[in-house]
Write a structure and sequence with these properties.
globular, 2 helices, 6-stranded antiparallel barrel, single chain, 6-stranded mixed beta sheet, 31% strand
Length: 230
């Protein structure tokens, strides 16, 4: 089974942009001007992120994360990104669960915390791997998803290219294409996470200052497509 790491909450994101790279990822030109660009079927998502300064109380997480980002799969949360669906109803619902959503018996995990708030819709029509359209019922969060936003199917993250509503049912055209078959009844996630690897992990590594402050550098991450996780 593939191992991946959750993004530590102590490593706070200042800003993030996720975009599909297209069918080619730029490589380098050789001295003979041979183009080494890499063809990626359907394209992969790229994330560009910057980070907040970390103080003495969170330096242990900075050091831990610095030792994990090189070569490992990371689950990057997008819920703080301006690219996720956001409405007054969503903003009002999230603070109702300050320590997370409990189990159906109202009990949290042994840590005292519950599940992360994760609003969803329901997929109404089956989607085949490689498809670029989906129909979903968004009645729980009417009108929340608009073009330009991102959503999740399985562990894939997709960008809304076009969307048309009939009542609370949305017909959505998206990119990149579906990473796996999606069955009717599965969740369409409005606050997805991106499974990715750092392209330039060394850019994150900034020496800790004498005042025990760390200012992580910006980082670029590339989506990982792994059948054991999708």
């Amino acid at each position: 089974m593939t191992v991946f790491y959750d993004w530590p909450a102590a490593v706070r994101l200042n800003s993030i942009l996720v975009y599909p790279s297209g069918a080619l990822e730029a490589g380098r030109l050789s001295r003979a001007e041979f183009d080494n660009s890499v063809r990626i079927p359907g394209g992969r998502n790229i994330a560009r992120a910057t980070f907040a300064t970390m103080g003495p109380d969170t330096l242990n997480w900075f050091h831990w994360f610095a030792g994990r980002i090189a070569g490992n799969i990371i689950r990057l949360p997008l819920h703080q990104s301006g690219q996720v669906a956001d409405t007054a109803e969503l903003q009002a619902a999230e603070p109702q669960y300050p320590t997370g959503i409990p189990f159906s018996n109202t009990q949290p995990f042994s840590t005292g915390y519950g599940f992360q708030f994760s609003p969803t819709g329901d997929v109404l029509t089956a989607v085949q791997k490689g498809d670029v359209t989906v129909t979903a019922d968004l009645s729980r969060w009417p009108g929340a998803l608009t073009f330009g936003k991102v959503f999740g199917l399985g562990y894939g993250v997709h960008h809304v290219q076009d969307i048309a509503y009939t009542g609370s049912v949305a017909d959505i055209a998206f990119s990149p294409p579906a990473r796996r078959d999606i069955l009717a009844g599965e969740a369409l996630r409005l606050r997805p996470s991106l499974l990715c690897k750092a392209i330039d992990p060394n850019s994150f590594m900034e020496p800790v200052k004498h005042a025990r402050l760390a200012s992580p550098g910006p980082m670029v991450l590339r989506e990982v497509i792994d059948d054991s996780l999708l």
